[in-house]
Each structure stands twice: as C-alpha cells, then as structure tokens.
Design brief:
With 227 residues, the protein is mainly β. Helix content is 10%, strand content 49%. A hairpin with a 5-residue loop joins strand 8 and strand 9.
Length: 227
C-alpha cells in the first residue's frame, strides 16, 4: 500500500535532530548540520476523540482529523505512529518494542483494517494475516517465537478454514496437513483427537480412519466392571 505523502515526510523528519551528512570534493571528512524539529508538529493520541459518527477529531475541533499521530517516550524515541485521513485510520498503524524494533503493523484503508502483522520481541515474525472489512479473510500465517511455523492457510466467512491448511504443535509436531472447503474437512492428515468428530460428521469414513479406533473393550471403565 502506498504511504500517504505526509507519512513519508514524517519518516524523514521523525528524529528530534536530523543529521545531514555532506562530503566536499576536497575534504573527505563528513560534516554535520543540525535541523530542529518542532515537537508539536504531530498529534498525540490523547488529543483525539471519536464522535458518534465514528469519525476521529482533535479535541474541540469540528472537522474530522487528517494527519499523523505519534507517541514518544521520555527520550523522544518513537513508540506509536498512525495516520488519519478525514477521521479514519488510513495507512500503517505502528507500535514498537522498548528497543525500538517493530512490534506490530496494522494496515488500514479508509478506517478498515486490511492487513495484520506482528513480531516477537526477538524480531521473529508472529502473525501475518489479510483482512476484509476488519475481519480475518484470506491468507493467514503464524509462527512460534523461535521462528518455526505454527499455522498457515486461508480464512473465508466467519473464520472458516479453506484450502490447504498446515498446523503445528510446539516442538514441530504436525497436527493438520489437510484440504478444507469452507470449513469442511476434505482430505489429509488430522490430529488423532479429531478423528471421531470427523467420522461422526461424515467427513471421514470409518474404514479410512488414520488411527486405530477405540472400542468399548478398550474402555478402562469397562475393564473395571468386568473385574
């Protein structure tokens, strides 16, 4: 998604003091020039309110807000950034970890989230999901903190699995490697704990079960009764 022009300007001006490096042809020593940035150039989140019409405005202002919103710590390090266009989130909404690395990036188009990305504190990806009208629809991936894959697939409707779904338990144990059609299991590998549900719902034929099926004689309670 192309960034708003004002966001590009912000990213160029985000430091309290920007250092411009210049190198003269006859002097290889870099020279610096300090450029002061007005601390009031951008709006703080506490200055915003959401009206009954769902649009965001600055306190005591009638027009829906357009512009960048930032929050910084005491050392003037960026902790939060977003951009509003006519009272609606538009573009990236960013949050950062204490060391300054990116924690999350939610992308918006006219107030509606279209992509959701998060990272662990160690920098490894955590979630990457597409959204439609604020709902998780489309490709979706998650990871464990060590960087190993956790879940990948596609959502349709009300979080229904669709297409090729792969799901891992901690330790790299494969749980699901299956094909779904709008939430309905079609074929593939599934956890043993799900087998009887799939058979009961007519999605797996008993003779095609992946795991040995338990019978009444396998029930420890029945064994105790016989004794």
């Amino acid at each position: 998604m192309p960034l708003p022009v004002s966001l590009s300007t912000f990213l160029k001006m985000s430091a309290l003091t920007a250092v411009v490096m210049t190198v003269a042809c006859d002097d290889p020593t870099p020279k610096t020039e300090s450029v002061k940035i007005d601390r009031d150039e951008f709006t703080h989140p506490k200055e915003l309110v959401v009206g009954e019409d769902g649009l965001t405005r600055r306190l005591n202002e009638e027009q829906p807000f357009t512009g960048a919103v930032t929050q910084r710590d005491r050392d003037w390090n960026l902790r939060y950034f977003c951009y509003y266009q006519k009272g609606k989130l538009h573009g990236p909404e960013l949050k950062f970890w204490e060391d300054g690395t990116l924690r999350r990036n939610f992308d918006y188009e006219n107030g509606s989230k279209v992509r959701h990305r998060e990272w662990f504190e160690n920098g490894n990806p955590k979630t990457d999901a597409m959204f439609v009208d604020g709902h998780a629809i489309g490709p979706h991936k998650t990871w464990f903190e060590d960087g190993s894959p956790r879940w990948s697939g596609n959502f349709v409707g009300e979080l229904l699995w669709d297409g090729h779904i792969i799901d891992y338990a901690p330790g790299g144990i494969l749980m699901w490697d299956a094909i779904f059609d709008h939430g309905r299991f079609v074929s593939g590998t599934y956890p043993e704990s799900e087998q009887e549900k799939l058979i009961a719902n007519g999605m797996v034929k008993p003779e095609e079960a992946l795991y040995p099926r338990k019978t009444d004689t396998d029930d420890p309670k029945e064994d105790k009764k016989e004794n």
